[in-house]
User: Fold this.
Amino acid sequence: MSFVELPHTADVRIRANAPTCDALFSETTMALMEVMYGRDRRGGTKKEIVLEAADCEALLRDFLSEVLFVTEVDGLVFAHAEVRLEGCHLHATLDGEPFDPARHNKGTEVKGISYSGMHIGQDAKGYMLDIVFDV
Amino acid sequence: MLEGINNVGTDEWEVPVGFVPGMRVPGRFFLSETLGALLEPGAVQQLANVATLPGIINNSLGMPDIHWGYGFPIGGVAAFSLDEGVISPGGVGFDINCGVRLFTTPLTQSDIKKPRELIESLYQAVPTGVGAKSSLKISPAALTSMMEKGARWAVESGYGVERDLTRCEENGCMKEVDIRSVSAKARQRGIPQGGTLGSGNHFLEVQVVSEIYDETAAAAFGLTQGQVCCMIHCGSRGLGHQVCTDHLQILESATKKYQIRLPDRQLACAPIRSPEGMAYFGAMAASANYAWANRQLIMHSARQQFERMFGIGYDSMPLVYDVTHNVAKIEDHTVDGHTKKVCVHRKGATRSFGAGSPDLPGDLTRIGQPVIIPGSMGTSSYVLCGTKTAMERTFGSTCHGSGRVMSRSQAKKTITGKEVTDHLLAQGIIVRAPNEAAIVDEAPEVYKPSSEVVQVVHDVGISALVARLSPMGVIKG
Assistant:
């Protein structure tokens, strides 16, 4: 599992790879957290997210949008995400800690998750995703 | 210039119908040859995608700061018929009414004996960066009032003066608000963030008027050579982001319901007068009003710091103007020789109404609207004036900034925060930010030169240069 930042002039474009679609969603959540808060993130506080959507792209967009809502409103910074997908149904358990300005003020706010530039692909090695975060 | 694009005049280019399937009108953008070398194919594709939307009038337009965004390109402008046209959050963006305001002071550069102290006091006064919370206690009722009244709510609550309102586009309040279309989630995000700057390209900058190009317009705007000013750039914060997210979801279903074929899901839209279209418009207006109130709150905090540090009166710091650059609005424009109400989307573009426009305050109707174009941290910002040419050619629109040329990932590889800070300090510019990454992300090198962008809009005639403002110190989110 891994993610890298690809060139994008205005926003943040991420490419994530994972052996399963569940892991791909987890990995993308971690990319989102790293862009916003940097790498020093710890667990301790759990948060559940349950969602349904029309298709896989909508599910990912809605899930990450929900993560953006939760991280801002609950003031939680997540270090780990366990995602289970069954068709277009998602159950995620996020593990994080309260926002600490001294350690987490290392990134930039993400304003939204865009469909533009979103591509989920699959090959023999597993799943790959390109996604753009509006910052 | 990219293949398939036609040169149709000085700094003017056409994307012909057929560039992408389903285009209803041509695309048209304004760009010098030099800036054209930096144009991304993705931005042109997005400009062409917009031309496929139902009810688009004349052209899908691109300003000279055009770059690759999501849905519309950044720097994209399009007007839609109220009868056959659509409204799309992809033509406004997540940061609804992200905008800029500029206020002046009676100070000159030599009055600022301790610039670092001034920047630090502004940094302490304005909550900045990721996770920053407002020191204000905004009640749910006050939030409703913010969304209904915009900048007026702030002025009535003691955060400004009546005159400020006449110096905001729309007087700081869109009247088409529909509070019921703003979700509980958006409200939850709005309450703790009133008066916060945010992060990314948002900033508060102390500047000095370093050059005047048009004495008459500068005098009308209240700008004099050597004067210290303060510029604020931010938007509707989490509330606006949530409104965009919520309504994109609703409009995706509407796109199917109204059988609209789209080349990009991010262009999800609905007929303007449909229930879904009106709901988005009402919620967007509420977010736009929140943003005007937010910039008013930040300006109040900044004015208080100037007042405290220099013993100058609050009333001696008038607002020059406040412009929005992410919005959809119903405006009167001339279409086929007749004045018509149309829905203008501006995504990273600024309104540029010329002299004679009834929307301007009385003392500016003979001059035109002040257009405020921020530069990057180390480069100049500009004040321009709206023109009649803009009314004729771009639905009263012009550029909104410099436009990026280098990605954040590339910036991180090539520059360090310390290098940027030292380089700027050598030019007498102080930078204050919560972290080094925020400085690198917005380094002067990552933007097109603002001077070239404003020269194009001046030469094309869609706004006219009035004054140049040089940075003295900046706080970044």
